[in-house]
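Quiz preparation item.
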């Protein structure tokens, strides 16, 4: 059984779909946030990607403002804003403004991934930046200790989170911040020991902060549920195929229908990437997903699941979201989850 105290969140990257305008992806994200609020989710995350054909989510603060207008209780956050692309004061101003529209519901997740391609990195004027120093500067603006007074002043706290891999965990531990981890650190389809050692080091080295008195780990991965294991595996195919193609052609394409993915010719390398994606996700019937999630949450000691789920069929995605909420005992009276 899944521990009822574990937080339940979704990450929606506003994935585009073949045959639809990009705007449909953004409208779909807003509609999904309103649905999962009713289903009892604690938090809804959006992401930042630039000039990626398969992703319409390029401006987290703007999208979160739309989500704030469509919801009333669910927490809203970025997972994340890529800090090397922005001046810290601009990010602080954006999220302080958001807090005026959704007081007590805004979270600021921060990462440092580079732009998707060299032309994108040039367009972003990306340079080598000290992530830890930028994080400290941003925190100073939000908590009122910087030499510049932030306007508007945040309406309540805006908690910071770190999208952490490798040294990001060390930075988060040193600054007393919660982390969101995924990928190889979870050990799905591979050796779990390196990730477990990294999480143990984060917890061991954690320095309590005014925001976060103790370590807090959220785990992020694809989770898809259907009536049968085979149907759930099919739901993963559009996202897995897009990822496989990006690694072989350099283009991260819009999601395609399952039948189109099945009919598409694929190289041995693309098949290998599809299998890797399946191994790194948790899919299946409700019983199978519940068992595997309970094992992963227990192994990592995570306090929150961030389901980064997407598929071409919006109705099937909605059904999967609802089934996942049921595994966590939702819906139940809404609560503001603050790490």
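Solution:
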């Amino acid at each position: 059984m899944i521990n009822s105290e574990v937080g339940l969140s979704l990450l929606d990257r506003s994935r585009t779909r073949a045959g639809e305008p990009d705007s449909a992806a953004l409208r779909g994200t807003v509609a999904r946030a309103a649905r999962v609020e009713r289903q009892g989710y604690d938090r809804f995350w959006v992401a930042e990607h630039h000039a990626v054909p398969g992703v319409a989510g390029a401006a987290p603060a703007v999208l979160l403002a739309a989500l704030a207008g469509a919801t009333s209780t669910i927490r809203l956050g970025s997972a994340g804003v890529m800090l090397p692309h922005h001046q810290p004061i601009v990010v602080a101003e954006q999220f302080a403004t958001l807090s005026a529209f959704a007081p007590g519901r805004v979270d600021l997740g921060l990462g440092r991934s580079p732009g998707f391609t060299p032309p994108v990195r040039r367009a972003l004027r990306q340079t080598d930046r000290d992530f830890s120093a930028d994080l400290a500067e941003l925190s100073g603006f939000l908590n009122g200790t910087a030499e510049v007074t932030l306007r508007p002043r945040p309406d309540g706290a805006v908690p910071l989170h770190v999208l952490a891999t490798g040294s990001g965990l060390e930075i988060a531990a040193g600054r007393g911040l919660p982390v969101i981890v995924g990928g190889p650190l979870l050990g799905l389809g591979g050796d779990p020991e390196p990730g477990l050692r990294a999480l143990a080091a984060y917890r061991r080295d954690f320095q309590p902060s005014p925001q976060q008195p103790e370590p807090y780990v959220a785990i992020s991965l694809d989770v898809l549920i259907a009536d049968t294991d085979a149907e759930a595996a099919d739901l993963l195919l559009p996202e897995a195929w897009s990822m496989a193609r990006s690694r072989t052609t350099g283009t991260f394409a819009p999601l395609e229908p399952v039948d189109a993915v099945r009919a598409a010719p694929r190289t041995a390398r693309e098949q290998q990437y599809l299998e890797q994606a399946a191994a790194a996700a948790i899919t299946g019937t409700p019983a199978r997903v519940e068992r595997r999630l309970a094992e992963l949450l227990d192994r990592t000691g995570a306090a929150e699941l961030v389901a980064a789920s997407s598929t071409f069929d919006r109705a099937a995605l909605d059904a999967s979201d609802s089934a996942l909420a049921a595994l966590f005992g939702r819906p139940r009276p809404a609560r503001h989850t603050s790490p």
